[in-house]
Write a structure and sequence with these properties.
- The chain is an alpha/beta fold.
- Helices cover 45% and strands 17% of the residues.
- The chain has an eight-stranded mixed β-sheet with strand order 5-2-1-6-7-8-11-12, sandwiched between helices. Strands 4-3-10-9 form a four-stranded mixed β-sheet, covered by helices on one side.
- α4 packs parallel to α5, α7 runs antiparallel to α9 and α7 packs across α11.
Length: 327
């Protein structure tokens, strides 16, 4: 095992999969989890199956710690990989912000807004990297994750500043990506990460909530004429907001995006995947709707545009959250 140390914060499907990935790559991995999950994670092997292959990480390979009270050693890590939900970013990073040293941070949150929250907590000298992940993961059991969708590598870059001299091979992100090559999840640098995150937000702003409301798989959402029509309308509003906010419009209109881009993302490898937002609702968890459709609504409002479909979807998901949390 190398001396390279990765701290993964969050033991949901993404956190478990990333922890297994870096462990297989030979890194020393610390997984920070909620106290209630620690015993199960410590006493069982970690298994990942599905589209990225089958991988077993033996019990004891990964050090499991309490996310609320990480040790000082965690602050000396080479990279902190933050996989919590966007609304938990502040809570997850506060223990590290209070340390004498905070490691470089790679963020794996959906939507827009979490990087700004992190930057506000951390000192300016802490390298902060964002990412876009088009890989669907489902936690089947406390230590079992299934990869059910895979469209591209995890793309990483600096959203709020320079890449800390990425051309130099000793920089934090370059080091992490080099270690990552030995694992099973493809990861790569992206110098245009803002546009990539916007492209993913475009996708997530209709596939996640429509899938959560209807219960349909990604393939069914596109093939059903009713959900397809809703998706086109949501895409149209998002494209208009991006064009005004970022001078970025990856498709002429909603129909063009669905026909020319979305189908190629979903088919053939992601047709059976179900929205992670649906998984959150079924588990009675809060969703990231404020960082997805809420972000589109804020962009549209800033530029004097309408986002009525996104507003309606946001209100429906909020209503579902309220119902599911009471079950």
């Amino acid at each position: 095992m190398s001396s390279y140390h990765v701290v993964v914060v969050g033991a949901g499907s993404v956190g478990l999969c990333l922890a297994a990935h870096f462990a297989q790559a030979g890194a020393r991995v610390s997984l920070l989890a909620r106290k209630a999950s620690i015993d199960s994670l410590r006493n069982n092997p970690l298994r990942v199956s599905g589209l990225l292959g089958d991988h077993d990480i033996p019990q004891g390979t990964i050090s499991v710690q309490d996310a609320a009270a990480p040790g000082e050693e965690a602050g000396q890590a080479d990279m902190l990989v933050l996989t919590t939900k966007a609304y938990d970013v502040k809570t997850a990073l506060q223990p590290f912000a209070a340390m004498d040293r905070c490691p470089p941070v790679l963020m794996l949150q959906n939507g827009m807004g979490s990087a700004e929250i992190a930057r506000g907590l951390l000192t300016p000298n802490v390298p902060l990297y964002s990412s876009a992940m088009m890989i669907g993961m489902v936690r089947q059991a406390p230590t079992l994750v299934s990869v059910t969708a895979h469209s591209s590598p995890i793309l990483c870059g600096s959203l709020l500043g320079s890449d800390q001299g990425l051309g130099d091979d000793v920089t934090p992100l370059r080091q992490m990506l080099e270690v990552s090559k030995r694992g099973f999840i493809p990861m790569a640098h992206d110098s245009s990460i803002r546009e990539t995150i916007a492209f993913k937000l475009l996708f997530n702003s209709f596939m996640n909530p429509t899938g959560a409301i209807t219960g349909q798989t990604y393939g069914e959402l596109i093939e059903d004429p009713n959900s397809r029509a809703l998706i086109m309308g949501l895409a149209e509003e998002t494209l208009a907001a991006f064009a005004m906010a970022f001078d970025y419009r990856p498709a002429e209109n909603g129909r063009h995006y669905v026909d020319e881009t979305l189908r190629s993302i979903i088919f053939p490898r992601s047709t059976g995947h179900r929205s992670s937002m649906l998984q959150d609702l079924q588990a009675g968890r809060r969703t990231e709707i404020d960082f997805l459709n809420g972000a589109v609504i804020r962009l549209a409002k800033t530029h004097g545009l309408s986002a009525t479909r996104h507003q309606s979807i946001l209100q429906l998901i909020k209503a579902r959250e309220s119902i599911c949390s009471r079950r």
